[in-house]
Amino acid sequence: MSSVSLWAQEMVTNLANNQGEIQPWSDNVRYWQYKGEPVLLLGGSKTDHLFLADGLLEHLDEMKEVGANYVRNTMCQREGKELKPYALVDDSIFDLNKWNEDYWTRFKDMLKWTNERDIIVQIEVWDRFDYSQKYWEISPWNPRLNINYSYEEIGFDEKYPLHPSKDVHPFFHSFPDMPKYDKKLDVIYKYQEAFVNKMLSYSLQYGNVLYCMNNETMTDSKWGKYWINFITKKAEEKRVSINTTDMFDDVHKGKESLYAPIIFNDGEHYTFADISQVNSRNFDDTHWNEVQWLIEQVNKTYPRPSNHTKIYGGGYTNYGSGGQEDGIERFWRNILAGSAGVRFHRGPNGNNLNDKAKASIQATRLLESQMKLWELQPHMELLEDRLPNEAYLAAEPGEKYALYFTNAGSVGLDLTKSKGTFTLKWISITQGVWYREEKIRGGEVATITAPFKGGWVAALTKDN
Q1: In a 10 Å sphere around its CB, with 0-12 CB exposed, 13-18 middle and 19+ buried, how is residue 109 labelled?
Q2: Which pTM value belongs to this model?
Q3: pLDDT tens readout for residues 104-128
Q4: 385 and 243 in a common domain
Q5: Cα-based distances in Å from 453 to 262, 383, 464
Q6: Backbone dihedral region of 343: left (phi > 0), alpha (psi from -120 to 50 degrees) or beta?
Q7: 231 shares its domain with 94
Q8: Comparing C-alpha atoms, which of 164, 159, 123 is closest to residue 144?
Q9: What is the distance in angstroms between the CA of the first residue and the CA of the last residue of the chain?
């Protein structure tokens, strides 16, 4: 039996044995199921390290009210000294052998509250930005700020001024297989392992958790795979089913990415894909084409869900976040292209859970009341007289069509092979509400014109 066949057989067995946890849907493994039911993950939140946010309970209720069910949670190390993982032994020095109970109580509460609200948490274990530049200056892992080791003992530098994409910090090379490993790093590894074990002591109690090893990593993939194996083993010991991945920074390069093929070709470690970085630098039709290509590659050999825990859109940054309108467009293109989970990035470089984000989430749930996204596939060939970035289509031809207009517009929809009539229901993306309903005749190319300026979705379903 081939390795692909063995992988598929194991996945089917796991799905049958674990019905309660978040996991690939047994009927269509490109999407998620939770508590035995298929679910589309939609999200937006005011921060990435969600468990450290004040007013979290109210924020989660705010999400739930608009239909959001997906959050990102980095195990952040960059907050003030009172919100680090470790205890202070005086006003400014940490002891890495003692935990800060406030940090971990907040983490435990976040898991409990999201679980109660059926909100899926995607944890990021390591964030490279926590260990470089200004955040290294306040890190408890910095020898200057703890009582546990010196610069000489650990082999760390006092400063890491380069962008973390340069991968110069030995922190991410702490075991022998890594390219920059040094035996001195055995000390830091001991604390890394303790940190992950502490995290898992809470998170493995809950079935609403996904695990991503890194934020935007450019480190050798052995680093992430090591921690995937570590976490998976701990889950197996607890008889818990989990899903793991890693987020590589250069995915936005598409076919030129060096790291994306690592995910494409490994369904064992990366049981889902996080392709968030496609949502920077790519705009309009280019973004649509790149997302489709990535999802196609992810599912070519090892079909799995594709998530976007970060959709940039705001700040007009030099790395191509664009404006808030770009974030809204990316959200909708991702959904229609076949993504299983989408979440607006926090501000200022994303829409967080602002009114625009809320309206799009509500509009998506309205669309779901007419058709499920997993019933559809992209069918741009059915559009005529379309201008660049004017409209995008996903459909089950002859039965259901979801036609998204970025900002008003008019296109031809080829219904020549679809006899009978269709009901078209307009959904305002700007307000997240129904607008009006009309009848469309099949058997011809129908002209579909958005009611007003702004974003719209036309939900067409065939009449009985």
Answers
A1: middle
A2: 0.95
A3: 999 999 999 999 999 999 999 999 9
A4: no
A5: 42, 20, 32
A6: beta
A7: yes
A8: 159
A9: 45
